[in-house]
Protein backbone atom coordinates (compact mmCIF):
# COMPACT_ATOMS: atom_id res chain seq x y z
CA UNK A 1 0.00 0.00 0.00
CA UNK A 2 1.43 3.41 -0.93
CA UNK A 3 2.61 5.45 2.06
CA UNK A 4 0.19 8.28 1.15
CA UNK A 5 -2.81 5.98 1.65
CA UNK A 6 -1.79 4.87 5.15
CA UNK A 7 -3.44 6.66 8.08
CA UNK A 8 -1.09 9.14 9.81
CA UNK A 9 -1.53 7.36 13.16
CA UNK A 10 -0.42 4.06 11.58
CA UNK A 11 2.64 5.74 10.07
CA UNK A 12 3.49 7.32 13.42
CA UNK A 13 3.14 3.98 15.22
CA UNK A 14 5.38 2.29 12.64
CA UNK A 15 8.02 4.96 13.29
CA UNK A 16 7.75 4.49 17.05
CA UNK A 17 7.84 0.69 16.84
CA UNK A 18 10.94 0.89 14.63
CA UNK A 19 12.60 2.97 17.36
CA UNK A 20 11.54 0.45 20.03
CA UNK A 21 13.02 -2.37 17.94
CA UNK A 22 16.35 -0.53 17.54
CA UNK A 23 16.60 0.75 21.12
CA UNK A 24 19.05 -0.93 23.46
CA UNK A 25 17.71 -2.71 26.53
CA UNK A 26 19.24 0.04 28.71
CA UNK A 27 17.53 2.79 26.67
CA UNK A 28 14.19 1.00 27.00
CA UNK A 29 14.55 0.33 30.73
CA UNK A 30 15.69 3.87 31.54
CA UNK A 31 12.87 5.53 29.62
CA UNK A 32 10.17 3.18 30.88
CA UNK A 33 11.18 3.57 34.55
CA UNK A 34 10.26 7.24 34.34
CA UNK A 35 7.08 6.78 32.29
CA UNK A 36 5.54 3.57 33.60
CA UNK A 37 5.50 4.44 37.29
CA UNK A 38 3.35 2.06 39.32
CA UNK A 39 1.35 0.83 36.33
CA UNK A 40 1.68 -2.92 35.92
CA UNK A 41 2.19 -4.67 32.62
CA UNK A 42 0.61 -8.10 32.15
CA UNK A 43 1.96 -10.61 29.65
CA UNK A 44 -0.62 -11.73 27.10
CA UNK A 45 1.87 -14.27 25.87
CA UNK A 46 5.11 -15.20 27.61
CA UNK A 47 8.02 -13.48 25.80
CA UNK A 48 9.80 -16.01 23.63
CA UNK A 49 12.65 -16.31 21.16
CA UNK A 50 12.62 -18.24 17.92
CA UNK A 51 13.76 -18.21 14.33
CA UNK A 52 12.33 -16.58 11.24
CA UNK A 53 13.27 -17.24 7.63
CA UNK A 54 14.78 -14.18 5.98
CA UNK A 55 13.90 -13.85 2.30
CA UNK A 56 15.66 -11.72 -0.25
CA UNK A 57 15.39 -10.53 -3.85
CA UNK A 58 18.11 -9.62 -6.29
CA UNK A 59 17.62 -6.10 -7.61
CA UNK A 60 14.44 -5.61 -5.60
CA UNK A 61 12.20 -7.22 -8.21
CA UNK A 62 13.83 -10.59 -8.85
CA UNK A 63 12.42 -13.88 -7.66
CA UNK A 64 12.36 -14.31 -3.88
CA UNK A 65 14.83 -16.72 -2.32
CA UNK A 66 15.51 -17.95 1.22
CA UNK A 67 18.56 -16.10 2.52
CA UNK A 68 18.79 -17.79 5.93
CA UNK A 69 17.39 -17.75 9.43
CA UNK A 70 17.51 -14.99 12.02
CA UNK A 71 16.83 -15.12 15.76
CA UNK A 72 13.85 -13.03 16.84
CA UNK A 73 12.33 -12.31 20.25
CA UNK A 74 8.66 -11.38 20.55
CA UNK A 75 6.35 -10.24 23.31
CA UNK A 76 2.75 -9.11 23.76
CA UNK A 77 1.63 -7.25 26.88
CA UNK A 78 -1.29 -5.25 28.15
CA UNK A 79 -0.86 -2.02 30.10
CA UNK A 80 -3.98 -0.33 31.39
CA UNK A 81 -6.17 -2.02 28.79
CA UNK A 82 -3.88 -1.19 25.85
CA UNK A 83 -2.14 -4.02 24.04
CA UNK A 84 1.48 -3.66 22.97
CA UNK A 85 3.45 -5.95 20.67
CA UNK A 86 7.13 -6.15 19.81
CA UNK A 87 9.45 -8.18 17.61
CA UNK A 88 13.21 -7.64 17.90
CA UNK A 89 16.17 -9.25 16.20
CA UNK A 90 18.16 -11.35 18.63
CA UNK A 91 17.22 -13.50 21.60
CA UNK A 92 16.75 -10.82 24.29
CA UNK A 93 13.19 -11.57 25.46
CA UNK A 94 13.49 -9.00 28.26
CA UNK A 95 14.16 -6.22 25.75
CA UNK A 96 11.26 -7.48 23.60
CA UNK A 97 8.95 -7.26 26.62
CA UNK A 98 10.14 -3.71 27.36
CA UNK A 99 9.55 -2.75 23.72
CA UNK A 100 6.02 -4.18 23.90
CA UNK A 101 5.37 -2.13 27.05
CA UNK A 102 6.66 0.96 25.25
CA UNK A 103 4.28 0.22 22.36
CA UNK A 104 1.31 -0.04 24.72
CA UNK A 105 2.26 3.21 26.47
CA UNK A 106 2.74 4.97 23.13
CA UNK A 107 -0.86 4.10 22.20
CA UNK A 108 -2.16 6.01 25.26
CA UNK A 109 -2.71 9.60 24.05
CA UNK A 110 -1.87 10.93 27.54
CA UNK A 111 1.50 9.12 27.66
CA UNK A 112 2.48 9.35 23.98
CA UNK A 113 4.34 12.68 24.30
CA UNK A 114 6.40 11.30 27.20
CA UNK A 115 7.27 8.14 25.26
CA UNK A 116 8.19 10.20 22.19
CA UNK A 117 10.41 12.53 24.23
CA UNK A 118 12.05 9.93 26.48
CA UNK A 119 12.52 7.09 24.01
CA UNK A 120 11.62 7.63 20.35
CA UNK A 121 13.43 10.93 19.78
CA UNK A 122 16.68 9.93 21.56
CA UNK A 123 16.83 6.57 19.76
CA UNK A 124 16.23 8.21 16.38
CA UNK A 125 18.93 10.79 17.16
CA UNK A 126 21.40 8.03 18.12
CA UNK A 127 20.62 6.07 14.96
CA UNK A 128 21.07 9.18 12.80
CA UNK A 129 24.41 9.91 14.48
CA UNK A 130 25.48 6.29 13.91
CA UNK A 131 24.55 6.56 10.20
CA UNK A 132 26.47 9.85 9.88
CA UNK A 133 29.51 8.34 11.57
CA UNK A 134 29.44 5.30 9.28
CA UNK A 135 29.04 7.58 6.27
CA UNK A 136 32.05 9.71 7.32
CA UNK A 137 34.19 6.61 7.86
CA UNK A 138 33.21 5.25 4.45
CA UNK A 139 33.87 8.62 2.78
CA UNK A 140 37.37 8.65 4.25
CA UNK A 141 38.19 5.54 2.22
CA UNK A 142 36.82 6.93 -1.04
CA UNK A 143 39.16 6.81 -4.02
CA UNK A 144 38.59 9.08 -7.02
CA UNK A 145 39.79 7.60 -10.28
CA UNK A 146 40.49 9.82 -13.25
CA UNK A 147 42.10 9.47 -16.63
CA UNK A 148 44.78 11.81 -17.91
CA UNK A 149 44.84 12.31 -21.64
CA UNK A 150 48.22 12.77 -23.27
CA UNK A 151 48.44 14.95 -26.34
CA UNK A 152 45.71 16.37 -28.49
CA UNK A 153 42.54 14.44 -28.99
CA UNK A 154 41.00 15.29 -32.35
Automatic annotation (TrEMBL):
InterPro entries the record matches: Phosphonate_metab_PhnG
Entry's Gene Ontology BP terms: organic phosphonate metabolic process; organic phosphonate transport
Short name of one Pfam family: PhnG
Domain of life: Bacteria
Family annotation (NCBIfam families): PhnG_redo
Protein name: Alpha-D-ribose 1-methylphosphonate 5-triphosphate synthase subunit PhnG
Organism name: Oharaeibacter diazotrophicus
Amino acid sequence: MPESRIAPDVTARRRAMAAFAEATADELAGALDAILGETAATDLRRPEAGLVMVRGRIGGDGPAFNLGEASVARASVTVGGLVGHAYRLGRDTGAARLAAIADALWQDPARRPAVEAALVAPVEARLAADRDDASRRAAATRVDFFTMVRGDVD
